[in-house]
Amino acid sequence: MSAYLINKLCHRIFHDVPFREAVKRDPAAAIADWPFTPAERKALLEGDVKSLYEWGGHPFLLSHFTRWNLFGLDYAKYSASIRQAKDPA
Amino acid sequence: MAELVAGIGVPHSPHYPAQFERGGPQETPRLYGEVAAHLDAAKPDAIVVIANDHFNTFFLNNFPTFAIGVAEASFGPNDQTKMPRYDFEVQTELASHIRNFGVGEGFDFAVTQEFGVDHAMLVPLHYLTDGVKVPVVPIWINTFVKPLPSARRCYALGAMVRRAIDSLPSKLRVAVIGSGSFSLEIGGPKIDAGKRNAVPDIPWSHHIQRRINAVEIDELVAEATPERMWKAGNIGGELLNWIAMLGVVGKHKPRIILDQQGDGHAYAAWRWN
Fold this sequence. Notes:
The complex is a heterodimer of chains A (89) and B (273). With 89 residues, chain A is mainly alpha-helical. Chain A is 58% helix and 0% strand. The longest helix of chain A has 13 residues, at 3-15.
């Protein structure tokens, strides 16, 4: 798993407005060129922040998704998922 | 010779400026105001701000444990915080002196010569100063990407900054601000259902405030382990910004230390005449 790539995606979304707009319009297409594993890509597109966190996604960065409801994540869905997560080793 | 004239500890929530006007009647601006009165009375010529970056000045491609900004000027916020934009001076002579002095004492700062700063520095400066007209020296500590520096190392860093200030030949009145929360979770498993954050450990925040008020700094430094701070939330490491500030201030009782009820943070001020 590439925690760095997950975090890099969050960071890019936060600071790069055209990229953020692309993720809003078509999440799968916007991240198509990013070399995620199939499991990471699936977790991102399903808004599975529990898994992303357990693989090393930084919580401050992951929670940026809720600012624009990206990957279907509003506060309710985000918190329901992340509250199930265990801290990575 | 330069001298330390004030020490300040405050939180830096990025939501405050949009919610509470500077000088407004609500609790938050009132608490900042009580601390600001001490900073004003100290009449600083320079303000050292110790805070953590939130992936805005730095990112994981190059994330420093300790960094200092040595430039002519800076700006912010660089993180979309809803607040006025400030362009402000950096106190280059003091910043450069702290960098050189620190490296001489074995504190190998990362140095940035072109940078913006995020809410962690500008929310305090917004509420505590009149438009950030006093030149600033920014010092960053990594308080939320594991592994964090130890509390002992952060206290020693602060003590070194104090010796650097005391050894600057220029006549300069210097204040130090340390900024952060004692208990706060953002985006992690301890958040409240339906929210983005939570305050998991208010008793720890109260305990820290009692330690600071009783000048039990060695005890606080010993207790502030990574595990203990993490228990108070994934932002709990921001205590290290306060501990570094306490290292600058030395072992003195604060003039004031004010709890913000329901939050895991406080407002404190030290001042010398």
